[in-house]
Design goal:
Length: 419
């Protein structure tokens, strides 16, 4: 067996993959462990959920991405525990994986703030399977409305509620409105999809809270032009099969989507170290774990502040963390101190719909069509693989001119019994 130090990376997302690639010329053995066989470009996941793109357009096999990096072994498996004393990772299949240095980058999942029973009625959007499930629910809702004779039930099927006014919620709401008013126009005989009601529900005082207030207002006005009913300061009290309740108001919506909050992977609790309110590991300035200098944490699993501000759980931050941890590992192997992590904030951007977006680039703010073109170019540029970029460009060009969405195939069964 090789005497090279063994680096185990748990998670093939942005932090894990960028760390692995940054270690390509380092004399180490790397094992990259992930529950899925692919790297997912999460910023475009909502496009799969709303039938704009197919799953392979925004995902690439990890083995293919790393095929030329000879010091990496990719394993399909799930980490369920960490034994920091014995320096091994416990796997779901009963095995273990020994390490010299460990990077935990297993990401985050959705949280329902103590109401996990809502999950079956309001799915979140974190994985490809989530996206396919949401796409099925959306498309089936229009089909069930077409078959429904009761006008009240038809209205409920044509009511879509998105809980959470962050970028994911805004993108889902805007795209859903476009599907109803343009994509499906003229395809149904008994119903008019343009009568669909799309609600965006946010408990806080405004949507896109991480953006400047002026851009939040621009986003709200662009959503209103699309016909989206934006509710701010509205807290969800209950969600069930028939809809949801906001305070004393009952909303009959057969499709509720959750975009309101995230919680760190439960793997963080295995370390026995301080966690923040979202369950993320409060890391040292170099992204190592307090009391465990041979363990690093990156991406959505890490809680750290730079310049007095928390580092956001976004793709650029995860990539920067991955590269920084690679540098820290090299420093440790050479007996040198590792530098503190410094986050470079290049700005925020979110799309609202066709030719509508908001962009904040370090104080340079714009919206509308220029922002939409900028958003499109940035997302295509950061996709992994030439094929992915080409396919996405072709699909978006077709959708731009025709309003059509290329992945409107219903997968899975409709478990809703007919009335």
């Amino acid at each position: 067996m090789s005497a090279l130090p063994h680096v185990v990376i748990v998670g093939g997302g942005f932090a894990g993959l960028w760390a692995a690639r940054a270690l390509r010329r380092t004399a180490v053995r790397i094992t990259l462990l992930d529950r899925g066989n692919h790297h997912l470009f999460q910023p475009l996941l909502y496009q799969v959920a709303t039938a704009g793109l197919s799953a392979p357009d925004i995902a690439a096999p990890l083995r293919h991405i790393l095929r030329r990096q000879r010091n990496v072994t990719v394993l399909l498996g799930e980490a369920i525990g960490i034994d920091a004393g014995a320096k091994h990772v416990r796997l779901a299949d009963g095995g273990t994986l020994d390490y010299d240095l460990l990077l935990l980058a297993s990401g985050a999942t959705h949280t329902y703030f103590g109401h996990d029973e809502w999950a079956q009625y309001a799915p979140g959007l974190k994985t490809l399977q989530d996206a396919l499930d949401i796409r099925r629910r959306i498309l089936i809702a229009f089909e069930r409305a077409e078959a429904e004779n009761d006008p009240d039930l038809r209205k409920a099927w044509l009511t879509f509620a998105i809980v959470g006014g962050g970028p994911t919620g805004v993108e889902l709401a805007g795209t859903l409105a476009e599907i109803a008013r343009h994509t499906l126009r003229g395809e149904f005989r008994r119903t008019d999809p343009r009568q669909a009601r799309v609600l965006l529900i946010e408990a806080g005082p405004r949507i896109l809270a991480s953006f400047p207030q002026a851009l939040s207002e621009k986003a709200r006005s662009q959503l209103a032009r699309l016909g989206v009913d934006v509710r701010t300061g509205a807290r969800v009290e209950a969600i069930d099969r028939e809809g949801l309740r906001l305070g004393e108001e009952r909303i009959h919506a057969r499709t509720v989507l959750w975009a309101a909050g995230v919680a760190a992977s439960p793997l963080a609790r295995e370390l026995g170290v301080p966690l923040d309110r979202a369950g993320r590991v409060v890391v040292q300035p170099d992204l190592s774990v307090p009391g465990h200098p041979d363990i690093f944490v990156g991406g959505d699993l890490a809680s750290i502040q730079c310049d007095g501000k928390p580092v956001p759980g976004v793709a650029p931050a995860a990539k920067q963390m991955g590269r920084h941890i690679a540098h820290a590992i090299r420093a440790k192997l050479h007996g040198e101190p590792s530098a503190d992590f410094r986050y470079r904030d290049y700005g925020n951007l979110a799309t609202i719909g066709r030719m509508a977006a908001v962009v904040d680039l370090r104080g340079f703010r714009f919206w509308g069509l220029p922002a939409w073109w900028f958003w499109l170019a940035a997302h295509v540029f950061f996709l992994i693989g030439f094929r992915n970029r080409l396919v996405v460009l072709i699909d978006w060009a077709r959708a731009y001119w025709s309003y059509q969405r290329s992945a409107r195939i219903i997968l899975g069964r409709d478990n809703e019994p007919p009335r």
